[in-house]
Amino acid sequence: MTPAPQGKKFLQEKVYTFLMMVILFFPFFVLVAEPKKKTNSSPTEIPNDPKGADSKPELETAKPINELQFKMTGMVKTDYAYANGSVLSFGFDNLVAPTMAKRQIQARDSEPRSGIYPTSSLLGTEISYGTKLKGIFEADFVDVSKSSIGPETKPRVRQIYFKYTPNSSFEIFMGRTWDLFAGVFPHSFNSSAFMSASGNIGWQREQIGVWYKVGKFKFGSAIGTTGFHNDPQVKINVERNSMPTVAARIDWLPTTNLMFTTSAIGTKLKVSDPYSDSSRDGSYLQYDPSRSDPNATPVSGLLQRESNRRTNLTSGGVSFGFTWKWGSLESRGEVSYGTNLNSVTASSISQFQSTTYGAEFTDSQYGFLSGSYFSDAKTNTRTKYNSPREVTGFLSFNYEVSSQFGIGIHGGVSKITNPEVLIGADYNQLTISRSDSFQWTSNPKVMGAVRENQNYGFRMYFDPEERIRFFIQTDLFRTYYKDVERYSGQSAHISSYDPFSGVGELRDPGNKYVRSSSLGEVYSIRLGGLFRFDP
Questions:
Q1: What residue numbers bound the domain in which 225 lies?
Q2: 164 occurs within a structural domain
Q3: Long-range contacts of 215-218, Cβ-Cβ distance < 8 Å, separation of 24 or more
Q4: For residue range 193-251, what is the model confidence (pLDDT) as tens digits?
Q5: Assigned domain for 12 exists
């Protein structure tokens, strides 16, 4: 990947530095410029981020009390989950928070499974000092890397942050909380993330940000870490991304029952850094022609210098959403588009996908071509970094039939718009049963990358008392995986072909019915109850 010219690179770094300085110092400018108000006036409420349980207005109208106040929040929730096939939670076979259907690659993938899960219960506390300062701690007990619930399950931090509201129009927040980007949650009883299997690209992020209210508009901006927390894998080297995420959001509340929101996020992901990669130990940090082979050509020198360069990929997206309440009917929806977003809506796709030029050629529809020229192409081991682009959207409705009974529906679709960059499943791997210890995220050659995911669901709830709820929710997951292109269509019948000599060989493509389908389809149902002890 050829780096940007030094002038352009210098300009980009200055722009990034300027944006971060604006975000960091903007709060203090507002504090200085804010006119003093009468002590007997009540601040106007600012609706908080509509994500999760923390969606109620947080600013109190009572007079400030300069003392610490503690409040316990959360719920005790247990549900029974059943699925007629394997479902994945962020790439792991698990029923706690399913996001998609698994393609059958193991003998047990088509077997029904069920479990009882109390681990999505929440426990938190809010510590307030007057009406301006509040700290929030929240944890659950979900470990999606385990398919069964055992005594070793440990608490998992969901939110830990504080916010400072010096006046009625301004708020500063710092810590780990719901992502400023893609701020709408669909209705769901999958409370491990306050989300259903579709919706909410952004989840949790360490952030430093501000909210500012002007009339019926709310403006938010934040910088955050480049690592996501939507799977159990430990994120490494996120600190080496010198540029944090930069996000902005605008909420418009024309009425108390309607909100429109739009947001954007962007960053650069450092995906290759030969200057500091441990695999380069013993090698020179920078290209020096005097140390090169005396027989080196200008081309080999250029390739050596190119291999010493850092590689960065741009990552970001835009989203548009709304929440609307009309009497007993409430609706939420959102659409988004971006690249390298690591979306939880469909596939938990890696932030980028790396392959070699040789592997890309071999897996393409031209992989059967042979001859010296094509043999050289197949043996090209130079790394290629691919960036999946994704469009996604969801819509959900909730209808309150009475004060104790309600129903709802939700649906969402997420699709990769450039599936040609995805890694496909190898034809020769599709008829071999994998061991139970296999995780698909470690080798997409076996299952293939996800190219599209759909989820549709229905739910009902009954509240016999004010703080207790019994519910039932059904979901249908349809997930499409990619296969290697050379094994589809007419290419599946060609073993090799030399276009220069005109000589080729045919092959028996085999019976396609013995191969695992590229479509995974699973029906699931969950029923249970919860006791919420939020004030």
A1: 66-273+309-532
A2: yes
A3: 216/252, 216/253, 216/254, 217/250, 217/251, 217/252, 217/253, 218/46, 218/47, 218/250, 218/251, 218/252, 218/253
A4: 333 333 445 577 889 999 999 999 999 999 998 865 544 444 556 667 778 889 999 99
A5: no
